[in-house]
Write a structure and sequence with these properties.
Length: about 190
């Protein structure tokens, strides 16, 4: 069997055997509730909504259309997993285009896991002179390995147990970002 066929088999097995932690409907409902919270928090403000690529893009697209206030959109790409299931140093691949000086910045990402990625992005936005920086994630993974004890995003849609997750933008070895719910990889496959 070719290595491409082997990979395809592995990807299909991981998807088939995964544990559904949040169905697509549950994810959509949670994003709807979060959108109200975020809309309330930004009353009277005109923030820059910064999507963290690649993982944040699907959540960001679902969230932004439900936000009822004027905003600008931008993106950045900081990665520390680089297609692997364990993380390394945060690597900056693309920086935001808009000047963040004096702006209210809302950082939007798929997952708060250890939190090193978000902390590094918050520091970079503050270093650019942002007036305020808030973070918004689809899912907060529950474990005691956070980069700082008790680290939380300002806005969180869902929590998930300590498994390697995929779906709704989160990848398994670069794949399955397109899965519509949130799934945990079985230990035997991770
Ligand atoms: O809380 P942490 O442990 O720092 O992990 C969270 C980050 O990891 C993932 O990005 P990744 O590095 O995989 O890049 P990608 O979005 O391009 O897949 C995810 O999209 C978050 O940005
Ligand atoms: O569990 C995860 N899944 C996908 N990407 C991630 N980045 C950090 N943790 C995860």
């Amino acid at each position: 069997m070719s290595s491409a066929d082997q990979l395809q088999q592995e990807l299909r097995r991981v998807r088939r055997e995964a544990i559904e932690l949040h169905s697509s409907d549950q994810v959509q409902e949670a994003i709807g509730k979060l959108a109200f919270e975020v809309t309330e928090a930004y009353a009277g403000k005109v923030p820059v909504f910064v999507t963290i690529m690649n993982g944040g893009m699907i959540f960001a697209a679902e969230l932004v259309k439900r936000l009822d206030f004027p905003l600008e959109m931008d993106y950045l790409h900081a990665s520390r997993y680089l297609g692997e299931t364990t993380g390394g140093e945060v690597e900056w691949l693309v920086t935001p285009n808009a000047s963040l000086a004096g702006r209210d910045v809302l950082i939007v990402d798929d997952i708060l896991d250890v939190g090193s990625t978000l902390l590094s992005i918050i520091d970079a936005c503050k270093a650019q002179g942002a007036a305020s920086v808030k973070t918004c994630v689809l899912v907060d993974k529950q474990h005691d390995r956070k980069a700082r004890p008790g680290l939380k995003a300002d806005f969180t849609a869902l929590q998930a147990e300590d498994l390697y997750l995929f779906g709704m933008g989160m990848d398994y070895k670069g794949f399955w970002r397109n899965a519509p719910g949130i799934y945990g990889v079985r230990e035997s496959n991770s």
